[in-house]
Prior knowledge:
Elements: E1 2-10, H1 14-25, E2 30-33, H2 41-45, E3 52-55, E4 63-64, H3 72-77, H4 80-89, E5 94-96, E6 101-104, H5 109-121, E7 125-127, E8 132-137, E9 141-145, E10 148-157, H6 172-179, E11 184-190, E12 194-195, H7 198-204, E13 211-218, E14 221-229, E15 233-235, H8 237-243, E16 252-255, H9 263-271, H10 276-280, H11 286-296, H12 307-318, E17 320-322, E18 326-327, E19 335-340, E20 358-360, E21 368-369, H13 374-387
Parallel strand pairs: 1-2, 1-10, 2-7, 10-20
Antiparallel strand pairs: 3-6, 4-21, 5-6, 8-9, 9-10, 11-19, 12-15, 12-18, 13-14, 13-16, 14-15, 16-17
Helix pairs in contact: 1-5, 1-13
Bound molecules: flavin-adenine dinucleotide.
The site of flavin-adenine dinucleotide has 36 residues, from helix 1, helix 2 and helix 13.
Amino acid sequence: xxxxxxxxxxxxxxxxxxxxxxxxxxxxxxxxxxxxxxxxxxxxxxxxxxxxxxxxxxxxxxxxxxxxxxxxxxxxxxxxxxxxxxxxxxxxxxxxxxxxxxxxxxxxxxxxxxxxxxxxxxxxxxxxxxxxxxxxxxxxxxxxxxxxxxxxxxxxxxxxxxxxxxxxxxxxxxxxxxxxxxxxxxxxxxxxxxxxxxxxxxxxxxxxxxxxxxxxxxxxxxxxxxxxxxxxxxxxxxxxxxxxxxxxxxxxxxxxxxxxxxxxxxxxxxxxxxxxxxxxxxxxxxxxxxxxxxxxxxxxxxxxxxxxxxxxxxxxxxxxxxxxxxxxxxxxxxxxxxxxxxxxxxxxxxxxxxxxxxxxxxxxxxxxxxxxxxxxxxxxxxxxxxxxxx
Length: 390
Ligand SMILES: Cc1cc2nc3c(=O)[nH]c(=O)nc-3n(C[C@H](O)[C@H](O)[C@H](O)COP(=O)(O)OP(=O)(O)OC[C@H]3O[C@@H](n4cnc5c(N)ncnc54)[C@H](O)[C@@H]3O)c2cc1C
């Protein structure tokens, strides 16, 4: 038997559920098909269990995409304030941690409950532990699953990216794009820790746990936040942010003393016979500076340095080149960069220009947010936008 729906949404994550709620509110009959046994698993683990559900300040510049303007329309129609209003309507306590990042006070489960309640109110049907076996398009979409066959006028793909496979991530969305002849921008793990080269691992690997603020740069992008040394490499917000831009084999540059000019302090230190690594230890963790000095400052600088040599050392402090051997991959990546190319989609409706009735929303699209609540905001906004048209 075939069950008929107005809208079938594949994936009960942030984007799929938001789309379901909005479509349901319009009186559309909506079915959400989820492969995992539970909905919103990524919401649950997000933000260290407290879900950084949005950011107070969101612009298109917080996103990476082949078409950086694509996200503007959806973001302007469902803003961070709209999601905050929803959070407040459900009485969920929240706080701003830093840089506009909003987190639940208690647990990300509260965001799942919010979505569940809104789905119920909008008469959305959800099936879990469901495998989609085939999708065909004739006059309408035909969706075959292990829990029955469905037909719908609109089909929404909201299956997310490739990160954290053990949370249920699949390449389903990209395979669907291929099936319908839609182009894909190469996918890569993003918001992900770097791994050391062999040489750097020998020097810095023993310093795991040390953290300090730094500016990390790749090309014309840079982020000034904490970096964290791990056993395997480098992590911390500044590193996660730059990882979304990094290209394999290229160096990233770390400014260890951003916005500080310590040449005068260096000169004074030298004039009073202090070791320069001791002077530096006033600004940076001592154990780190000892290792960094060993690797980055050649023997010839061991005696008293000229002013020119001091400047040379400072240049290295402000621009320490690191070539990571790679990243920790999809197992540790918060998101996937790249995805289904936006060029074949309307930025207003998120509908394919080529395949009528087919919508892609959320992380599966080539729209990747910075760290700080932007990825959820894209999921809410793109889900909301599509929900008005499905
Ligand atoms: C550890 C971690 C922490 C994060 N923290 C934050 C944060 O605090 N703030 C923030 O903004 N972003 C955060 N993110 C990113 C954020 O979780 C995602 O960008 C967001 O969840 C994307 O929403 P989505 O609905 O597009 O995809 P998802 O939330 O990934 O949902 C996709 C859904 O589709 C289902 N699915 C996949 N394949 C199939 C299939 N074949 N059939 C049926 N269902 C399928 C999946 O099981 C999943 O439920 C974090 C990510 C991780 C991994």
